[in-house]
């Protein structure tokens, strides 16, 4: 039986390639709304981050989400992401 291919994604903070299911996705859709996508299936441009506080802080300080999603990120999105990571 053929093994299923596991999609890999790169964390924007630590630049490590990890399986998609291990990372948290932040999405910008066509209406320029930015939100945390826990399903990993929402339409739009996505940026992935490891579920660790260290990676979150690195991405926050370096404004890596703003650069990757090509838009300003609101404080609410960062707060929601931090909440998801702490769970």
What features would you describe in this structure?
The structure is a single chain. The protein has 87 residues and is α+β, with helices and mostly antiparallel strands. It has a single domain, classed as Hypothetical Cytosolic Protein, Chain: A, CATH 3.30.1230. It is 31% helix and 23% strand. It is built from 3 helices and 5 strands; from the N terminus they run βββββααα. The mean pLDDT is 92.
Ranges with pLDDT <50 over ≥5 residues? none
Query: What CATH first level would be assigned?
Result: Alpha Beta
Q: Going across the major beta sheet, what is the strand order?
A: 4-3-5
Terminus-to-terminus distance: 36 Å
Structural class, from secondary structure content?
Answer: alpha+beta
Corresponding CATH architecture: 2-Layer Sandwich
Give helix and strand order, one letter per element, not per position: EEEEEHHH
Mean pLDDT: 92
The CATH superfamily is YlxR-like
Number of domains: 1
> What would the CATH topology be?
Hypothetical Cytosolic Protein, Chain: A
Question: Which key features would you list for this structure?
Answer:
3-stranded antiparallel β-sheet, alpha+beta, 5 strands, 87 residues, Hypothetical Cytosolic Protein, Chain: A
Summarize, please.
This protein is of the alpha+beta class and 87 residues long. The chain is built from three helices and five strands, in the order E-E-E-E-E-H-H-H.
């Amino acid at each position: 039986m053929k093994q299923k291919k596991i999609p890999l994604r790169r964390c924007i903070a630590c630049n490590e390639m990890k399986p998609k299911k291990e990372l948290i996705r932040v999405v910008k859709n066509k209406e320029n709304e930015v939100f945390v996508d826990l399903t990993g299936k929402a339409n739009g441009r996505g940026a992935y981050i490891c579920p660790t506080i260290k990676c979150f802080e690195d991405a926050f300080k370096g404004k890596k989400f703003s650069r990757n999603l090509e838009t300003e990120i609101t404080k609410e999105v960062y707060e929601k992401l931090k909440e998801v990571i702490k769970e």
